[in-house]
Write a structure and sequence with these properties.
Elements lengths: L2 H25 L10 H12 L9 H16 L3 E9 L2 E9 L8 E6 L22 H17 L2 H4 L2 E6 L14 H8 L3 H6 L2 E6 L8 E3 L5 H13 L6 E5 L8 H5 L4 E5 L19 H18 L12 H25 L1
Parallel strand pairs: 3-4, 3-5, 5-8, 6-7
Antiparallel strand pairs: 1-2, 2-4
Helix pairs in contact: 2-4, 2-10, 4-10, 8-10
The protein binds zinc ion.
Length: 340
């Protein structure tokens, strides 16, 4: 480029720069540069898998719980073991809080147990063997551990991390699904329920070809907020706008308690779901990073605010309104026809 063209282009370039900054300030509200490190998260995923399969009640799972606790404590978080017994099995949710006396308004959850039997394995001989759960168990947990590391201390008291036990044994030996989250919610008093603005669940978020359509029972306003951040960050090919159907997962007990909740989950489930092939090589640091970055921005934007996420109006209320309006009209019409 010559000096002459520089002189001609410079004012135009300045105008363009000013224009693009003003457009950015109107449309792109995201100013926070994410610190979330996908490679770190991937290491946390592999670390969990190194304990082997981690079904409820197993020594592997209690070793993994110790690993999660020690790691978060090293970042300064307080860890509480929430112990409960289910089907004569000792289970533990792990709860990480920054300031135990304060009620965090944002609760992030993931299950850290893995399925005791590979019930969907194509080989019938494998179907009673436990799965490794790299994606189904370790991936969501890994994202939460990395978030716990990178959040700035000024916003940590707005956040609570819960690692659920006993999520993934449904249909085996009389077990139901989502027992850890069910127990956790059963222990909340009404004051604590009211103080939670949002519950965000991550489950199966590690697949190298991650696809996250919108889970249909999640609270729309909360889901819209997260998906909008993902769009602005250029992740709309991962956070899809399509309907992902209804999933029974650890967000359900929160929804049932009247808490806004969203499930961030890969659907349709990957081909290796509940098989012995759910191993770290199916997952990638890039996928973990996309989810982690979006959640980091979500936390930065929603910590220390009074913002709440309106709950969806149950469809039964809509049906009730339609009946309430149409019934008198039908009755009036009936009597009108009878009289004349
Ligand atoms: Zn599962």
């Amino acid at each position: 480029m010559t000096n002459t063209s520089m002189r001609v282009l410079s004012p135009a370039a300045i105008v363009l720069l000013v224009l693009s900054f003003s457009i950015l300030s109107v449309t792109g509200q995201i100013t926070h540069v994410p610190l979330f490190d996908g490679e770190n998260a991937y290491t946390y995923l592999v670390d969990q898998c190194d304990f082997g399969p981690r079904p409820p009640g197993s020594e592997n799972l209690s070793l993994c719980a110790g690993y999660i606790a020690v790691t978060l404590e090293s970042f300064g978080w307080n860890i509480t073991y929430q112990n409960f017994t289910y089907q004569e099995t000792a289970c533990s949710n792990l709860i990480a809080t920054w300031n135990a006396t304060e009620n965090a308004s944002l609760v992030f959850g993931a299950h850290y147990d893995t399925r005791p039997e590979a019930t969907s394995d194509p080989d019938p001989l494998n179907r009673t063997k436990p799965i490794l759960g790299a994606n189904d168990g370790a991936s969501g947990t890994a994202v939460l551990i990395e978030l716990a590391r990178i959040l700035s201390e000024s916003i940590r008291s707005s956040v609570e991390f819960v690692f659920f036990d006993a999520e993934d044994s449904g249909g085996i030996a009389g077990w139901s699904w989502i027992q850890g989250s069910t127990y956790y919610v059963s222990q909340l008093d009404s004051e604590r329920v009211d103080s939670i603005d949002a519950m965000v669940l991550v489950d199966m978020v590690g697949d190298a070809e991650l696809q996250l359509p919108r889970e249909s029972t999640s609270t729309r306003s909360l889901q819209n907020t997260i998906w909008s951040i993902a769009n602005q960050m250029g992740y709309s090919e991962t956070f899809l706008s399509t309907n992902g159907g209804s999933i029974l997962d650890d967000h359900r007990p929160f929804l049932d308690a009247g808490i806004a909740a969203v499930d961030i989950i890969h659907t349709p489930f990957p081909w290796y779901w509940h098989t012995l092939e759910d191993t770290p090589d199916k997952c990638s640091a890039e996928s973990l990073s996309k989810v982690g970055e979006v959640l980091e921005v979500f936390i930065v934007e929603n910590a220390n605010t009074d913002g709440t996420f309106p709950l969806d109006t149950p469809y039964l209320i809509y049906i009730g309104i339609i009946v309430a309006i149409s019934l008198p009209i039908i009755v009036a019409f009936y009597y009108y026809r009878k009289r004349y």
